[in-house]
Prior knowledge:
This protein is α/β, with parallel strands linked by helices. Helix content is 40%, strand content 15%. The strands form four sheets. A seven-stranded mixed sheet has the order 4-10-9-8-7-5-6, with helices on both faces. A four-stranded antiparallel sheet has the order 11-12-15-14, with helices on one face.
Amino acid sequence: MTGFDVERQRALFPALSLTHGDAPIAFFDGPGGTQVPASVIDAVAGYYRTSNANHGGFFETSRRSDEIVAATHEAVADLLGAAGPDEIAFGQNMTSLTFHASRTIGAVLQPGDEIIVTGLDHEANIGPWLTLAAERGLTVRTWEPRLDDCTLDLHDLDKLLVPKTRLVAFGWASNAVGTINPVAEIVRRVHAAGAWTYVDAVHAAPHLAIDVAAVGTDFLACSVYKFFGPHVGALYASRSARERLPSLKIRPAEDRFETGTGNHEGYAGTLAAVDYIADIGAAAGGSGATRRARTVRGMTAIRAYEMELYRHLADGLESIPGLRLYGITERSAFDRRTPTAALTLAGRDPASVARALGDEGIAVWNGDFYATGLIERLGLLGSGGVVRIGLTHYNTAAEVDRVVAALARIAAGASRPALTSATA
């Protein structure tokens, strides 16, 4: 493995000491929401202890709360590579933010205008646009994925782009099968056609260094609880895009995308989550650099470690009879995927496999993970979808060996051994 100090990072996550029987729980459920470091937990609790107040007051706790809110906007701007905190808005989650953003964007669209969505995406970046289209008389076209490797062909996008195209909604990375899309090239082609881009970066944010300025997208949304923080959604909207949109908000509100009082305690945890990533970057040789530089270095270190671990996982999974992996499987193309494995096991429905793993203290997800269209296209919706093993930087090679061994036993119909610390 790389020089990444996984044990150093694991020691910062209280949940990683949880056990099932006598064995530690192995958390491969990160794509549904990661565990959080103690610093995030402390930040949320600390907000309640010392800063709990609404904003704009002339008293100490309100001033502290305002400072945390402002600092968090700056931190997420650094994480995403935005030009400034004014391009960042927070909400309940990516889905809620996208519904609100779609209404705002829809206010400048006309009947007959077109939106492109993909068959690879989470429903959060499809459903809001379908709803908007039904309300505004818009046309929605679907950019279909290649099902052999679950990727998107740029030539197919070119065929869909027409003068009436106003927005293309797509994901940075697939939460179901891990495909990483060529975001900068997609944005370039969409902008050349005179349309906006709306990027779902929920699955990308825990695994990749994101740079909204470099890729040039108009909008990007993610959820902090997917990258080691609390349940908060974040939306990037470029200044140029904001200037062309109306304000769908109540009169006193300061931001067109932030409606009502925010989750201030969640913002405190969000700030701590960004600082956690920056601390990884500092440990990797970025001390003294800007927070933006440290977060990029931190995510780069995470990416290198995770993909080396994923190669180890893929080697083990491919040795199991009857197991099929979906998405990009060619080792030479692993730079175009995240460390997220989607699989089926012959003769076993995904729920039973996930339950058997759970009984051994191994946390995975099963189903379609709201990437319903993709799982349906793969012909797996009626049979329960897939089993998803999602690696994060706090997983270890020993945990990977453990899940591979468990899946091999399940495939062979063998009984599991008694859970002891020796089997961890």
